[in-house]
Amino acid sequence: MGIISWIILGALAGWIASKIMKTDHSMGAVANIIVGIVGAFIGGIVMNMIGKVGVTDFDIRSFLVALLGSVILLAIVKAVRK
User: Which domain holds residue 73?
Assistant: First the structure.
């Protein structure tokens, strides 16, 4: 995947994850992109731990992996902030 694909996938995954975790009001576009990209890495690690493939291409499965990782990341951040 190219850098533009990572940014688009990260922005979408980060934005939807922030909606799910109800942190959208405190996050901007750049934060959503960062959460989505880091979430893609976290989601890839989680998928590898259960014997599946992580983010491979710009498709729905990779988006769902990035979304899973983004939700995990935001849950950890919310727990640490409390």
Answer: 3-81
- HSE at residue 53, side-chain half, CA atoms within 13 A, is 7
pLDDT, tens only, 60-69: 888 999 999 9
Cβ neighbors of 29 (< 8 A, separation 6 or more) are: 11
DSSP category for residue 81: H
What phi-psi label fits residue 27: left (phi over 0), alpha (psi between -120 and 50 degrees) or beta?
A: beta
Q: What is the number of structural domains in the chain? A: 1
Q: Give every CB contact of residue 79 below 8 A, 6+ residues apart in sequence.
A: none
Check residue 3 and give its pLDDT.
Answer: 85
- What are 29's two structure tokens? 């576009």
Q: Which residue type is seen at 72?
A: I
Distance CA 66, CA 60 (A): 10
User: Which residue in this structure is represented by tokens 């727990």?
Assistant: 79
